[in-house]
Amino acid sequence: MMLSIFVFWTLVEICYSSPDLAEFECLESKCWCETMGPLIVNIECSSDLDFSVPLHNLIINQTINYFLIKNVIFAEHKNFFSNLEISELAFDNVQLSSMGNLTFKGIRNLKKLMFKNSILTGIQNGTFSHLDLVDIDFKNCSIDDKFMNENHASLNELSHIAHFTMSQNKLSHLNKNWFKNLKIYFLLNLSFNMITKIDSNFFRSMTALERLNLKFNHLSGCLDQIALLPLRASLVRLILSSNQLSCVPVFDRYPNLRILDLSNNSIETLDNNVFRNLISLNILNLNHNKIKYICSDCFTKSLLYLRLEDNYLKRIPSIEPVSSLILLDLRNQNGHLEKLSNFQFDRRDSLLHLKIHLEQNDLSEFAPRSFCSRFGSYLDNFTLSHRTFVNMFKVNRCLFGQLNYKSSYTVRLFVDNGHLIESKHLDGICTCDFVNFIKLSNVLISGIKCGEFECQSNGSSYFDECVREKIYSYPSLDMSYLLFNLELTAAEAHVLTTSPPYIGDSG
Ligand SMILES: *[C@@H]1O[C@H](CO)[C@@H](O)[C@H](O)[C@H]1NC(C)=O
Ligand SMILES: *[C@@H]1O[C@H](CO)[C@@H](O)[C@H](O)[C@H]1NC(C)=O
Ligand SMILES: *[C@@H]1O[C@H](CO)[C@@H](O)[C@H](O)[C@H]1NC(C)=O
Ligand SMILES: *[C@@H]1O[C@H](CO)[C@@H](O)[C@H](O)[C@H]1NC(C)=O
Ligand SMILES: *[C@@H]1O[C@H](CO)[C@@H](O)[C@H](O)[C@H]1NC(C)=O
Ligand SMILES: *[C@@H]1O[C@H](CO)[C@@H](O)[C@H](O)[C@H]1NC(C)=O
Ligand SMILES: *[C@@H]1O[C@H](CO)[C@@H](O)[C@H](O)[C@H]1NC(C)=O
Ligand SMILES: *[C@@H]1O[C@H](CO)[C@@H](O)[C@H](O)[C@H]1NC(C)=O
Questions:
Q1: Residue 191 CA: distances (Å) to CA of 129, 240, 323
Q2: Helix axes of 461-468 and 432-440: crossing angle, nearest 10 degrees
Q3: Is residue 271 one of the residues assigned to a domain?
Q4: Ligand 2 closest atom vs CA 125
Q5: CB 367 within 8 A of CB 342
């Protein structure tokens, strides 16, 4: 033993003088240590844990930053860690006999405890009562309802904890007793279980919880909101993706909820302004559902990101009130989306540029003012399919001029078929008239290759034609509002004041 301590200290000295040699055998040559700084080590042990003396005789005056015990059967763990200062303790693929009040006895300053891919026989009362953890993780430990019914008393000894993870287990019916006194105040991660039912009092003690992750579970039917109500005041993120929910209720008031993820469920319709009380919602993910219908005014003003990829929408939902929106993802509506209406992407009171994804849809019908704005809202990068692009040209090439009514700002149009499209697939679009028209409209197109050709002039008959058609009347427009809110160029102001007000076409 003297010899091993001697070797250990010698190695520590070598490590201090040579930062390159930071890893060395330690603890009677059974583990690996890594120096993290003066008197701070990481330790990894993955063979038999029988030491001839208590561990604290081998690790003198050192703080263990991270202690990993891996791939072992760990039966004799009583007093194993006593008198050690450990910040983070992790078990990976460890078979632990029933834990009791001596397992973590005498451990100092433990903040994070992780059991991963491990087999836990049981957790007796008193195992955690003397710990002051911030973070506990039971990922993939085959924990089922029976285990929880038998061992929840010891989990409740944790009382105040920031992060609690019990993902990749076999929980199915969340029982109201399990976390009765557990005040998790930041994150509860119960993802990748088999949860079908949550007792209405399950979250009762968690009135400060900010993030709840329930993705990849078996919640089905209409989301039952009752269990979630204790979280109303605190919840910031709610992740319910990859369940089998077919409908969502009118959400109660969750004044701080900013992220709601309902992606990869089976939601078909969004009725009754279900989100109207979510006044702080910034990110709403509804990708990979079966949504056919969305109520008008379904989305709140605060929304920044609206994701609707892979649904069955025939119509694009109204985003007129959603003044903060910066991303609208409508990729792949499974062949249902064919038509754009007038002022389709216009937003009231908006100062933000909107990025739009419309690729994997082949649109063929375009109302004459599809991309026009009544309220002076701007578009940003706009992505669409090759077919849609060609159809726009065929139906009404002035549509391209509508993408950017404010000529000092460039709008980027991405034609996305996964590869660069050569001019032979562009049905005669590649002419000087078109190229100059796009330039004059201050639009940049990526994803197509018109090849090299020289143009005699920089003018465009398309441009002239579209400018001639620029003046439309739009009866519901409130002009004072427009003039007040927009920075108008002289030319635009002229159009507005001398003709029935409307802006949005080219230039
Ligand atoms: C450990 O720390 C104590 C108190 O600071 C000191 O007296 C002792 O010499 C240290 N032991 C070693 C081996 O450095
Ligand atoms: C530890 O648990 C044993 C039973 O397993 C019990 O007899 C003992 O009183 C407990 N000690 C403490 C400090 O709770
Ligand atoms: C879960 O843990 C077991 C060992 O208990 C392991 O064999 C399996 O690969 C782990 N699963 C995952 C998804 O990590
Ligand atoms: C553990 O504690 C709970 C509540 O503190 C108590 O109801 C239960 O009987 C205890 N279990 C054992 C085995 O002592
Ligand atoms: C929750 O657990 C899952 C699975 O273990 C993991 O992938 C995910 O990153 C965790 N989420 C958070 C927010 O910790
Ligand atoms: C969607 O959820 C199903 C299970 O309901 C899962 O098998 C699939 O991998 C998930 N898809 C995505 C994209 O997450
Ligand atoms: C728009 O596209 C350009 C060029 O690809 C890129 O640099 C920029 O970050 C994009 N803007 C947004 C908001 O995605
Ligand atoms: C077009 O070309 C003419 C002369 O070649 C030039 O004066 C004019 O500024 C150009 N216009 C634009 C918009 O580039």
A1: 26, 9, 33
A2: 50
A3: no
A4: 2
A5: yes
Q: Is there a domain that residue 60 lies in?
A: yes
Atom of ligand 5 nearest to the CA of 139: 5
Domain range for residue 354? 338-507
Distance CA 49, CA 433 (A): 79
| CB of 140 sitting under 6 A from ligand 3 | yes
Q: What is the rounded CA–CA span in Å between residue 482 and residue 474?
A: 13
Closest ligand by atom to 380 CA: 7
More confident residue, 4 or 171: 171
pLDDT of residue 198: 97
Q: Given 100, 128, 156, which residue is the final one in a domain? A: 128
Question: Which atom of ligand 3 is nearest the CA belonging to 119?
Answer: 5
3-state class (DSSP) for residue 282: coil
Domain count, the chain: 2
CA dihedral angle for residue 427, residue 428, residue 433, residue 438, rounded to 10 degrees? 30
Q: What percent of the chain has pLDDT over 90?
A: 65
CA 263 / ligand 3 centre spacing (Å): 26
Q: Do the domain assignments include residue 403?
A: yes
CB proximity list for 20: less than 8 A, separation 6 or greater: none
Q: What is the pTM of this model?
A: 0.87
| Direct distance between the N- and C-terminal alpha carbons of the chain, in angstroms, rounded to an integer | 84
Q: Is the pLDDT reported for residue 263 higher than 90?
A: yes
Alpha-carbon Rg for the chain, nearest whole angstrom, is 31
Would you say 152 and 177 are in contact if contact means Cβ atoms under 8 Å apart? yes
Q: Are strands 63-70 and 40-45 parallel, antiparallel or unpaired?
A: parallel
Other beta carbons within 10 angstroms of residue 74's beta carbon come to: 18
Return the number of other C-beta atoms located less than 10 Å from residue 331's C-beta: 21
Residue 15 banded pLDDT, cuts 50, 70, 90: very low
DSSP three-state, residue 17? helix
Q: Which amino acid is at 36?
A: M
User: Looking at the domain assignment, is residue 345 inside a domain?
Assistant: yes
How far is Cα of residue 127 from the mean position of the Cα atoms in its chain? 35
Residue whose Cα lies nearest atom 7 of ligand 1: it is 61
> Max alpha carbon distance in the chain (Å)?
98
Last residue of a domain, one of 76, 102, 128: 128
